[in-house]
Amino acid sequence: MFMGLLCLVACQNSTHREATDSTPSLTFKDKTESFEECVGEACAKVALAYPVFEGDSVLTEIINRQIAEQNISMWVTGDQQYSGMEEAVSSFFDGYKSFRTDFPDAPQEWTFETEAKVTHQSESLVSIRFENFSYLGGAHPNTVVLYLNLDLSQNADVLVHEKMLVDQAKLLELAEKKFREHHEVEPGIGLEEDGRFFLDEGKFFLPAAMGYEDDEFVLLYNAYEIGPYAMGRTELRFPLKEVEGVVYVPN
Known about the structure:
Strand content: 25-35%
Helix content: 10-25%
Number of strands: 10
Structural class: alpha+beta
CATH superfamily of the largest domain: Fervidobacterium nodosum Rt17-B1 like
Oligomer: single chain
Order of helices and strands: EEEHHEEEEHHHEEE
Radius of gyration: 20 Å
Largest sheet: 7 strands, mixed
């Protein structure tokens, strides 16, 4: 286990979800975990919050495994892979202790926080938004948002893009229009000509983070994905009733 590690765990009940004819009743609790490792008075801290689905069905086991794997993937950088959360947290603290050894007078304290929330739950889909905040020194912290969309009709497999994006060309068109409005791009001015955005060979593109929040479909561009850090992230929201036939609409 972790030497000098403080671990605080707390759970809170969520709202009960009604059973459906096609899937077992799915309920979950929100679990939080906190870890801390200090070198002198300087500390590295980890905070995790995520849903744990209850029950002993195969479906809940798969959902919880998918959540655990997504949580671990938030730590992955480059070719580094971890077998579990314990290894990821231990590696983070080892890195901090090495940093303090190399730079004993540096003022930085490291932070790694991930919060995962169920943002949509229906008969056919569970969508979970993962938001990670990390600071490992440097000019500024980093924040990344990802969605885990689980297709309950396929044993909680990740919802594949081929099913999610019914009409990708149309979604791209709608997204670019909303993107231009969001960033107040002048009519008649191309995004490349505007000069503020990072484009794919001069062309607009869909983001890596796509998911469902209540009755909306969300496209989220993280910082650096389509613009500089100072631009922050861009969230484009579409009521599901407006994008029927364009994206998968869960029932």
